[in-house]
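Reply to dn_fold:

You asked what the input looked like. This is it:
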Amino acid sequence: MVTGDRPPNMAKDSPESNQGADLEQGVSIELLDPEGKLAALFTEPEPELVPPNVHSVRLANVADAADMEEVERLAFPALFPPTRFRREVERSNTLYLLAVREWTEEEVALGPDAISKSDGSPGFVGKIASLPGLPVRLLFQTMGGRKAKMPPEYIAGLVGLWFVLDEAHVVIIGNRPGDRRKGIGELLLIAAMETARNHGSRVVTLEVRSSNMAARTLYHKYGFREVGVRKRYYADNNEDAVIMTTPPIQSDEYQEHFLELGRGHAQRWGETERRVALS
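and this is what came back:
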């Protein structure tokens, strides 16, 4: 119906005709509703602006090895033997990504100088070592007489990928205990999936503890399916590992689903910069 026209066979003074004419002729809502209650029904709410995420994702390098070991030790205290990241990051078929951020002013102020001024009271070492911005190795470097140096960035978490034929296998994904429930684990998974896609991998696979329902739920969200079990896989308690794999990640259907999940993460936690380049 063209604006201002009346449907055929409708009387000029019928209620429907009058109501339509009122709206089409631009009668002011303010005149009909001076208190603005009706106008609120027609007003779109302003979208909430989510600030950019303070974390970004970048490729790991040899210089990050000691801090990666620290993150692994805190995220997986029962893991033995520890990963030799200095060697791992240089493997041709392996790639590690880090969730990093800048140090806060408080963390800089409580850096190595704060550790060196320890009064030796009980609990001080544990308190300092538990601060998210102060790796334990800094404490021992200072106590050993060496000048401790703050890493250039705070590393909150890491994820590793092993590329075999047309598969990308997640060998590790975790973050510091103090950085959980901040969307960092999901951010690392998103970055890993993007990297696998850009690498040309057909599917992504991983193992997860059978008792880790939170991780299994996250992986299900991103399309992973449970395809098998590795009995007594984890040496610390002989727990089974659930084998999970994605459908083909290069398909249009999966990419549409994945991009929607990525937008949802950004809306909740803020946009992130992912500095990942594949040669």
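The longest strand covers residues 154-164.
Hope that clears it up.
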